[in-house]
Amino acid sequence: MEIEHFSHPDHPLILINQVLEYSCELVICSGCEGPIWGPGYSCTSCYFFLHKKCAELPREIMRCIHPRHPLHLLPKSPYKGEYGCDRCQKTCKSFVYHCSVCEFDLDIKCAFQPGFFEVDSQAHQFAHKDHPLILNEEQEYHGEGVQCCVCKEPMSGPSYSCTSCNFFLHKKCAELPPEIKQHLHPEHPLRLLPNHDMICDFCNETCYESFLYFCIVCEYNLHIKCAFPPCIDAADQNQRHQFRRLMNPLSLKSISFTCNACGTDGDDSPFWCTMCQLVVHKKCISLPRTLKTELHQHPRIIHTYHPQKRIESINKYCGICCREVDTEYGVYYCPDCDFVAHVDCSGEYGDSATEIVVENEEEQSVTVDDQFNEPSFRVVREIKHGEERIIEEIEHFSHQHNLILTDKVDDDLKCDGCMLPISTPFYSCASCNFFLDKTCIELPRRKKWQYHENQLILSWSRGPHDLFYCNVCRQYFRGLRYKCDVCALWIDVRCFKSLEDSTKHGGHEHPLYLPADRKNILRCNIGGRGLRPWVAADGENIPHCSGCCVSEESKVFLKCVVCDFKLGMKCATLPYRARHEYDDHPLFLTYINANDYQPSCIICEEDRDPKLWFYRCEECDFDAHPECALGKYPYVKLGGVRTCPKHPHPLALVVKTEDYPACDTCGELCDDFALECTDPNCSFIVHRNRKQCFNSLW
Fold it and tell me: Does the domain made of 574-637 have the CATH classification 2.60.40?
C-alpha cells in the first residue's frame, strides 16, 4: 500500500507490516520519535519512517485542555528549533498539534490518552501477547471470582483463556470490533483503546473496564456496556428494521437522543434497530412508509431515514412549514421532484388532507389516476434510437394543424402557450405562425392540483380576439390556461408552472416558497360568486414585492423563509430575455448592477430605482423598466385577424398607446385594446374590452 503524506511531500510512503530495521537497528518514527516495532510506513528514497498510527493521525482535533480553538497537526515545530509541549513541558522537534491563535502546543503523545500508540488490532491480540489464547465454545463455570480481563464481569459462556497465566476473556469481548460508528457520537468513529479510569461521556460513570471506545478527534469516551447496551421487549417490526427497546443505565432515568426517523429530540428509552443502529421514538416505529397528501402535486411522498443517500439533489426546506430540514435525519420526500417535508409536518398538517397509502416494495415514481393523466396531444410520428424515443410530429388540441419538432430558434419567437421566449426543442406549425414550448406540450389536459380541490382543465380558445384575465397574477393573457368549471378560476400556464412548493429564482439566492396561508387562498370558491379569495379586499395589507416595490392586487406571492424577500407573481413570471425595437440585441432581466451611477430608463427617459429589477443590454449599456421593455400586455399575442358579421373587412387585435382614434361605436378615444380594420382604406376601429362596442360587431 502506498500513500502521499503531508509530512513528507517529496516521495510516497510504502506500508511495511513487519518489524522495520535499517542497518541492523530499529528505526525511529519521524512523527513521535519512538522506535517502530510493528507496521509502519517507509520512504524507499530517504531515511523517513512513520508508525502506521502516526501516519493516520487526524489533521485537526479538539481538546478539553484547549477548548477555544481546534489544534492542527504540523510535521515539525512552528518555531525556530524545538517546541515545548504545554501539557508535559517536554521539548520536542517532531509532530505537534498547534493552535496558531494562542501559540498552544501539544506533542502527539499528550494529545491522546495513554495506550493509544500501543494498540494495533483486536482486544485479545493486544491484551495478552505472551501466549496464544485458546477458544472454549462450551458454557462452563470458571470458578468464583474469575473475571474477564476486558469488561471485569464474571466469566461465563464461550471464552478465550490462557491457562498458563490464568488469563480469561469473554468470547464477545475478545472479538470486540477495533472501531465502531455509534449513534451516540455520529460525527466520528470510536476506537477501542486501553482504559485509564476515564469517565464515560454517555452515562457519566467512571469506566473500570480495561478498554473503552474513544474518539481521537473529540476525546469522547464510551463504556463498552454503553456502546453495546442490552435490549428488552422486542418492539413492533416493520419490513426493513428489527427494533428493540434499549435499557437505560442505572445512573440515568432517561436517555437523551435524536430520533433518526423524525429528527426531533427524545428523552425516554429509545428503540434501537439491531441491524443498522438506528435509534427512534416508540411512536416512529410505525410511521407509514408512504403518505398521500393534497399539499403536494405528486401522488405520494415516501419516508426515508437517509435523505442524503436517497435523494441526489436535496431541498433544504420543508415544503409544508418552509423551515429548514436537517438532512442527517429522516424526512418524507417525493420521488418525482425535490419536495421534502418534516415527518411531523407530513403527519399533522391537515388530517383530512393526508391518508396512508398501500405500501409498495419499490420506491419508484407513480402516477395519479388515469383520468388526470390524459395527455394534451396525440403522437403522429416518432423515431426510436434504442431506448430513446423522439416524438417528431404531434396533433395538439390547441391548433388545427400538426406540429413538427424543431431545434432551431429565432430570438424573437414566443411560445403561444405561455407567451414566454421559446427555448429548444419546441414544436411549430409549418403552415402558420404558431409555436409551443416542450414544457407546454407536456402539460396534462386535466390536472389534480394540490392547491385546488376540484380538477383543472387545460383550455384554449381559437378566437384570435379572445382575451383572458389570470386570477393569480392579475394580468391579461392569450394562451393556454387551466380553468376550474366549479369556481371559474382561470390561471395562465405561465403562473401555473411557477406555483410550486419551492422554486429557485435567479433574482434571489435562497429558495422561494408559496406560504401555507397563501395556498389556502387558491382553494376552490364553490359557486364562483362574490369576491374571489385570491383578490385582495379593500384596505387589506399585501406585502410589497422585492422586485418592483409594488403591493399587488393579488394575494398570491412567493416568500423566502431565510430572509424578508417577497416576490409577487408578476415579477416571479417575468421572462429572462426580451426584445425591444430600440435595441438590436436581446435584453436580459437584471436584478442589480453594481456600476449603476445614474440609473435611468432609455425608453421612457425617466429615472430608475437601482434597487429594483430592470432589463439590460450589456453591449449597448441599454437599461429599461420591465414595463417599458415588455410593453403593457406582454402575454397577449397582438395582430390576430378575424372577420365579424357587422363589418365587411377583417379586424386585427391591437393596443393603442398613442394617437388615440375615436371608437366608431361609442365615439370615445380607443386608448387600450381595440379591434382595427386591416383595410388601409378603412379607418374603422372599436373598443375590444367594452362589451357594448364589441357586441356591436356581432
Answer: no
